[in-house]
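Posting this for the archive.
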Amino acid sequence: MRVTVSHQDAMKFEAKTQKSSFIIDCPQITPVEYFLAGIITCSATDMVLMPKNSGKSVSNLVIDGDATRNEDHPRKFNALHLNYTFDSDADDTMAARWVMASLETYCSTINTIRDTTQISYTITHNSKVIRENEKMISGGGTKIDMGEIESCPS
């Protein structure tokens, strides 16, 4: 993957990818807002494709993200809460699995920040809250000590 950013004028920059280009107009939309939008869009694409691939459909999908950042530089994300709201023709268990598969496996942008950012989520499926303020197991930049784990004899 390659992206080239060039200064246009004032605080406008053009970002060129291998497929397209777009203008980043600071401070109208900051690079951090683009970054957060990219994180959310990555998961949103999963939330459209996974159901489609299993013969299901999602409608009225809205994902909003609320990030908290360091007060001092570097102002990295400390925490990110994602609210997933959508309707589908699947049951609540399958709907939650789609969100978890996106967060834990498929969304590369979330997985890029998850070791240093506490990530939580809420899922509203078919107008019913099915998960509220759940936390991902990883995140926060700390190593989890699972202790000694014995393997099962084969």
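The chain has three helices and seven strands. The longest helix spans residues 31-53.
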